[in-house]
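Most newcomers find our protein records easier to grasp once they have seen one. A learned vocabulary of local backbone shapes supplies the integers on the structure line. An example says more than a description, so a record of this kind follows:
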Amino acid sequence: MSEVAHVTAGNDGSFSGILGHTLRIVKQHWAVLLILVVVSVLITLGIALVTGGGAVFVTMTGSSAAAIPMIILFVIAMIAVGVFVSLSTLKVVHLTVTNKQVAFGEVLSYGFKNFLSFIWTSIVGTVYALKWALLLVFGMPALWAIMNVMRQAQVAKITEMGAQTPENLSLAMESAGGISGMITAINFIMLILGFAVVIYMVYMFIRINFLGYAFVADEKRGVEAAKTSMELVDGRWWKTFGYFFLVSIILQVANVVVSGIIGLIAGEEVGGIVNGVINQFATILTVIFSALLYGAYKKSKN
């Protein structure tokens, strides 16, 4: 049986079908997935301890500059943990849908060996997809800087002309009014562009959502992984957005209810730990769901 046939076996491409298949994979390989969660949680706790030690050092020395390396370390490490868990989970799904044995050692080895390549593909694919938004994001500060230079030049001109004669001051004020109007118009345009960039980025992130599974299943790298994902989502954007919106709502509600009940029974600290563990499981469930939806779209395309 082909991979596409395996990945869609047991579901009809509907939300309930894919969610059910996701839960079956979790049930089938719960031990491997649990180890991934435990490893990621332990690493996260280790990072928190290191960062906490840095916070104590900052309190003792009164040096806020000492917190910067700790914050950078925390952000980088958390991103690395998330990438590794996602990549390893995708490998679990790939082995499952191709009817191969899932061994934790193989999953772990794949995650480590392809870690840097996956990060490179994610960065290159994301930049390719968001190139116009990034151009605007980096271009707007430059435009703002130019506007400030114009404003300062106009203030200097008014000051200079006003020191000469009242007539010159009147002309300068008229000129300033024109400049101010232009700046107001540009500010409004920048606000509209800001909203447009946010909407565009959401649109494109949904289109490249399958980049990870294209990397694992079809061995696509760089821009090709992004293109593969976008081709599959084209014509199905609203369906894809709706599916991921629903699954995220379900997982968030489950997290709030479970961690909230445990927090009331065992205390807030225990509830916080449970919340972190459930978040890791939610990430894994979302990754599996995404991979199965990728397979359903690929089958439909073929």
